[in-house]
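User: New here, please read:
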Amino acid sequence: MYQDVILDHYKHPQHRGLREPFATQVSHVNPVCGDEVTLRVTLSNDGATIADVSYDGQGCSISQAATSVLTQQVIGQTVPEALETVDAFSQMVSSRGTVQGDEDVLGDGVAFAGVAKYPARVKCALLGWMAFKDALAQAITANALAEGGEHVEEVSDE
């Protein structure tokens, strides 16, 4: 059953195709296998909710299907809910099979629980999810700066 979910998301990806407008865009590559994803995130006007996530990429069925599942799961969630979802997925696929995942939190993401038993595929499954986490952090910072909120300083190693 879970294999069918992964194949369905690979063959019929959700939210694939880069859309505008967007707050931030990131590109991540898995140098080991060549999987690539470019992902865009848009927050609601108040910065509290994930308004849109779109992506484009190429790679194995696991990386592309996992990114499709990500978009389906986090659009419409609050920022804290989306971060909880990302953390739950990351814990599940990094657990070596000890964490099955909560379908209420992960939705179709629970289909990737078996990936945890194949360490070489964990990075494939996490590619889009880590790109989302990176893009979300950038969107939060950009939103805070646009509102004249927090001042973000560059940290020097000098």
Summary: Residues 2-145 form a domain with the Sufe protein. Chain: A fold (CATH 3.90.1010.10). The chain has five helices and three strands. Residues 151 and 157 are 19 Å apart (CA to CA).
